[in-house]
Amino acid sequence: MSDGAGQVAIDLVRIEGGTFRLGSEDFYPEEGPVVDATVATFELGRHAVTNREFARFVDATGYVTTAERPLDPADFPGVDPANLEPGSLVFTPTSGPVDLRDWRQWWRWQPGACWHRPSGAGASVDGLENHPVVQVSLEDASAYAAWCGLRLPTEAEWELAARGGLDGATYAWGEEPNDGSRANTWQGRFPYRNEGAGTGGWVGTAPVGSFPPNGFGLFDMTGNVWEWTADAWTDGHGGRATSSDGEGPACTCGCSPAAGPRSGPDDGRRVLKGGSHLCAPEYCLRYRPAARSPQTPDSATTHIGFRVAR
Predict the structure, then answer these.
(1) Cα-flanking dihedrals φ and ψ of residue 278, to 5°?
(2) What does 190-228 look like in DSSP terms, one character per residue?
(3) Which regions form coiled coils (predicted)?
(4) Which of 18, 66, 166, 170 has the least C-beta neighbours within 10 A?
(5) Fold of 1-310
């Protein structure tokens, strides 16, 4: 379809609505309890928004992403303004085994990192046009979707679509763990040795469509990049209060830092779905439809992207 601005064609897949089992009680506490969720028929992007597609949006609108904007000195009293230049979080492999309880071992704040320089100044997305765009905040993703006349999916829509008709299955393809051929996830010892996934031996993001689609014809619904949804974070599916008041659980997924450098505890976190190329079974088994992670809306990292819905 062509968007309302007439700028880009987006391949949307129709997902029939219905009632399905949302969540899981077999892995992490924030995924439970399993509840019946009913979703109306909707459409979802066949793949995550790519660098090429996002570039068209930026070229047409002049949009400046969150990671490209200076940090507000008022949020960092006493800090030298010279240290508040724009930037974002970049995954950096360690030289060997580290304490996996501390995600700061493998994430660093990198000045200059943004969607077209994912790893910082000197980097580029040249040659990565068909990779999912990363280093995008919730605001960035929402702005792109609005430009297209679309929106972000809800968590329930996203999970229904990710299951591809396999209601209650552990993975988007069934019950067998990923051997590197089904999704772009970490292959090796996290966070220092990644042997690469897929026929391309991908380390980092892979081009969209590099791995088999799920039962609905959707690509990379798990692995490759975490994806923004429109829903506020809750600490489970049982109607408990959201954790945006600072009282919910910290993110147990160290591959996805739970709070960005621009936010405090009252951060209005949103739900990320799908896991990423950093998910390793020995540490973060979140390349599953039921998996979810909290993220502050202004956060942008090298493994967060999004897809659009209608």
Answers:
(1) -95, -5
(2) TTTEE--BTTTTBSS---TTSS---TTS-S-SSSSSEEE
(3) none
(4) 18
(5) paralog of FGE (formylglycine-generating enzyme) (3.90.1580)
| Nearest alpha-carbon partner for 278 in 218, 214, 182, 196 | 196
Q: Which residues of 232-262 are buried (b: 16+ CB within 10 A; e: fewer)?
A: ebbebbeeeeebbeeebeebebbbbbbbbeb
Alpha carbon 80 to chain centroid, angstroms: 31
Pairing mode, if any, of strands 292-295 and 107-111? unpaired
d(Cα 302, Cα 153) in Å, to the nearest integer?
A: 21
* Cβ count within 10 A of residue 94: 12
* Cα–Cα distance measured from residue 140 to residue 279, given in angstroms and rounded to the nearest whole number: 24
| Strand ranges, E, within 31-148 | 35-39, 42-45, 87-91, 107-111
Residues 98, 171, 295, 198, CA torsion sign: positive
| Look-up of token digits 């009282």 | 247
* Phi, psi of 154, rounded to the nearest 5 degrees: -80, 165
**What is the residue extent of each domain of the chain?**
1-310
Q: Which helix (H) or strand (E) holds 230?
A: strand 226-232
pLDDT of 1 higher than 60: no
- The owner of tokens 């980097």 is 123
The token pair at 111 is 């000045």
Which secondary-structure segment (H or E) carries 75? none
Amino acid at site 285 = L
pLDDT for 259: 45
Strands 304-305, 226-232: pairing is parallel
Give this prediction's pTM.
Answer: 0.90
Q: How sure is the predictor about 84, in pLDDT bands with cuts at 50, 70 and 90?
A: confident
Largest CA distance in the chain: 54
